[in-house]
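Tutorial sheet, problem 5. The two components below are modelled jointly, 900 residues in total.
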Amino acid sequence: CYEVPGTRDYSPKQMAIRERVFNAIITCFKRHGAEVIDTPVFELKETLTGKYGEDSKLIYDLKDQGGELLSLRYDLTVPFARYLAMNKITNIKRYHIAKVYRRDNPAMTRGRYREFYQCDFDIAGQFDPMIPDAECLKIVHEILSDLQLGDFLIKVNDRRILDGMFAVCGVPDSKFRTICSSVDKLDKMPWEEVRSEMVGEKGLSPEAADHIGEYVQLHGGLDLIEQLLQDPKLSQNKLAKEGLGDMKLLFEYLTLFGITGKISFDLSLARGLDYYTGVIFEAVLLQPENDHVEEPVSVGSVAGGGRYDGLVGMFDPKGRKVPCVGVSIGIERIFSILEQRVEASEEKIRTTETQVLVASAQKKLLEERLKLISELWNAGIKAEVLYKKNPKLLNQLQYCEDTGIPLVAIVGEQELKDGVVKLRVVATREEVNVRRESLVEEIRMRTSRP
Amino acid sequence: CYEVPGTRDYSPKQMAIRERVFNAIITCFKRHGAEVIDTPVFELKETLTGKYGEDSKLIYDLKDQGGELLSLRYDLTVPFARYLAMNKITNIKRYHIAKVYRRDNPAMTRGRYREFYQCDFDIAGQFDPMIPDAECLKIVHEILSDLQLGDFLIKVNDRRILDGMFAVCGVPDSKFRTICSSVDKLDKMPWEEVRSEMVGEKGLSPEAADHIGEYVQLHGGLDLIEQLLQDPKLSQNKLAKEGLGDMKLLFEYLTLFGITGKISFDLSLARGLDYYTGVIFEAVLLQPENDHVEEPVSVGSVAGGGRYDGLVGMFDPKGRKVPCVGVSIGIERIFSILEQRVEASEEKIRTTETQVLVASAQKKLLEERLKLISELWNAGIKAEVLYKKNPKLLNQLQYCEDTGIPLVAIVGEQELKDGVVKLRVVATREEVNVRRESLVEEIRMRTSRP
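Model answer (structure tokens):
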């Protein structure tokens, strides 16, 4: 077998579904005024070093064949930060849709791959607090609503609140990152397991772990923020206080956007990547839309992101910072859900846009078919012809049925003499003779969308 | 520096130009009824082995980090053949636009990169001779005409004619491939150098080389085909005769398509890849369109392709063949030409589609701006807002000038009281008060394309 584990080909039908998802996402990104950029699939290995914490082991390296050491990009965020620093850009709102690579254990039934698309929207620049951050959440809300994937929830937290929480719980500074990684596993593991990892593997005191345990079960909205701002310990911690203040501001903006109904301030949300510095968030689908599907689709995170104010500075020779916040939509799970839905609905998806098949009723008319289709192509009509010298009319009509081509332009000896073409509507079997000079206009009229 | 040699980032402006090129190409591929597929960026190393002849040394391998040995794709043709065999597809017309990778010496000024796009259209299936082949040439003709790149020429030859020619010139069977590689260099080297490579490095007899030298200077149209069909030696060679017969048929179809004016049957065209079995072709730009450009753009091959009837069978366990013919458009040179043309013309290219900026004339109106923009986004209007609590009106208007946003929706205290929004046309400075409930309709009307 020639298949690479953890990857897949997209068939024409799958591509049609994928295009729908991309269109919804790109339409939203453009609605918010984003420009688009592209970067190479590989980066210098050193560009990716030290950006992903414990996940760095999943980076794909290229073989050393002479020249620079290269790695495949792990996400689109680090290449974006590298791009900003290299081009001294301090202010941009851009999207980028491209494949990223992770040497993960493929669990493809759960929609996880080693090669997968990310659709990223980021805002870079020195701005007033939480306005761009709120827009990122609005974007996630718009896209997940547009795609009609069923109910969803966007969890929000802040690295500063987490770090403040770790501090007041008695976690030593040196253990912040690794304890943060443990908290990040709470969406897949019960608290008891996470606690024993903290205490057993990572050497945290049981008291500190239990203290964390109390906080990470909290989730809510503005009321919880207010409550924590009064928390005797957290409110004494500078970082936590800053984070909570910004969280309050964020919720005020989200209220203006009318989307707080699907937002949850959740102290258990951690996100593993090293580069986040402020707000972090993650969107999860709450239940699969599988009324018509036999096998339930497993659900999970479909979008995530946050603020990373220090990353660009890591690539600048003078360390100049450019504050950034952004969101990444993961389309693989979304695509799996929509694909299963299409399968179940027996919806017929066309994989071409062909308007007309140029056919002949008699033999020896290949030349006439080629002349006619050339006229149609030159006029911008989407047209096909069977690659046979003498195809049977029935086979030509069957091809239209199979592929959804709505019209057939039939040339025969009589039609050629009369200067007409017989135009057949596949769905109704209606046939009309159309003068050859009017054919293009007639096809356009009959295939224009209402 | 963090740049990977031989690659480049695309800025928003470059992306806008790239999108134009892609649109022209995709529109053409769809006009010819093609479906679209996608495959992973890497393949098993063995999938690529033995497909590219002397160019195999340019393949990028991934590091062995456990698991399978992988290589980055070198073109889109081999992955396509692998896809057909794996899925037992015997009949498809598809396009595929994606990046491919070659460890070449980057000569970026000449538009050559180690990572570059190919835009491939291929027809697979058992069909009557030369009909799909002719369509591939029609497609190249349409795309190069649409893009208005100046004059171009499509050179055509056939591997069977080359092999027949080698045979009648006295080249031993075992040297066919390597002598073919030498002939392939004729577009970059004079005949004398190619001849000395054949005789000196590759051990061909001087007589055989001189004999080849006579053939490879020939180029023409139907007349040349007829002449060679009468050639006392070639006409006795089975392969050459087959190739010349098909070439004649091809030119008949190209005459029906009305495109022979830009097609040249050229015996010096070889193309290096191992997998071609029949017709081969290559399109070259004849002169750069650089009337307005100071630095002349170097020109060269912008499209190539041919027939490869044996490739799919190499991936099928039982060796079942699927005849294929296809064309690959290389956009990097095309893109360089168009980019220089845009630079020279001082054409202003918008990199966003934003219809309106939501602005305020006074301070303390951030909340009102966010409420209004949320209404616009929800109605599908492309809108932006400056991420400042109290931006100056002048700065907001300047932002529109800089980015080409045509309208400004201004909220002020008076407007809020009156239930209106002040809509300003950036180009004319005209201002009208629009009732809030009519704003969406008014923006749509004023920004719809004529």
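Marking note: Chain B has two domains: 12-345, 356-447. Full credit if you identified this.
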